[in-house]
Every structure is written in structure tokens, then in C-alpha cells.
Amino acid sequence: MPRKIRTPREKKALSLKKDTRQAYFASGQKTARKSVPLRKAIENRRNRHRNDQAIAVAVMGDEATLDLAESSARHDVHRAGGWRKHPDRPLGEAIALQRAKRGWRFGRKGRSRLERAASKPQG
Question: Which domain of life is it from (predicted)?
């Protein structure tokens, strides 16, 4: 099956829909690369600390309390949830957000100019 030849407008529309821009820590790639693993590690430490405390308290109690703490600790390891990175936003959304932010920085004349430009159909 031959490839469909796309026009530049179709290519651009597809690019705006499929390409993504980082939505987490907009200050740069390095901060996201460093902070995403850090957040995950902090969440895992929090879970381990919570489990260790529950088991330490349960050791002083009876057998039923110890079983309950152990089962809840085992459940926490496999639990769904915790911290997750938000997915990146599509390029079209990122550009629209950039334009909106630019409009907030200008005065009345700049905002009306941006509103006129936004009302024009993009192509």
C-alpha cells in the first residue's frame, strides 16, 4: 500500500496534534529529568517509612495486629497510585497556552490585537 502524500497543511495539523511539549516544570528539560525520578523516590521512601512504622507498632501488639500490618504493607507495595508525572501536552495546546500567556502580559491594545489574531482561522 503506497504512502499517502500529505499537503503541508495536513502535515502541520498532524504535527500540532501528535507532537508534544513538556508540561512538567516548564523551565527546562534538565529540571524534569532530575525531578521526576526524585518525586518517585520520595513517594517510595514515604511508603517504606509508613510500612516500617506500622510493623514496628504491630510487633509490640498481638499476632493479629502483626498479620494486619504485614498484609497492608504487602498491599502498599503493589498499590496503584502514588505520584505520577502528568503527560506532556500536544504542541497545538502548548502554542495556544503560550499565546494566552503572551496576551496576559500586554495591555489593552495588545490583548485586543491577540484576540483578533485568534479569531482568524488558522491554516
Answer: Bacteria
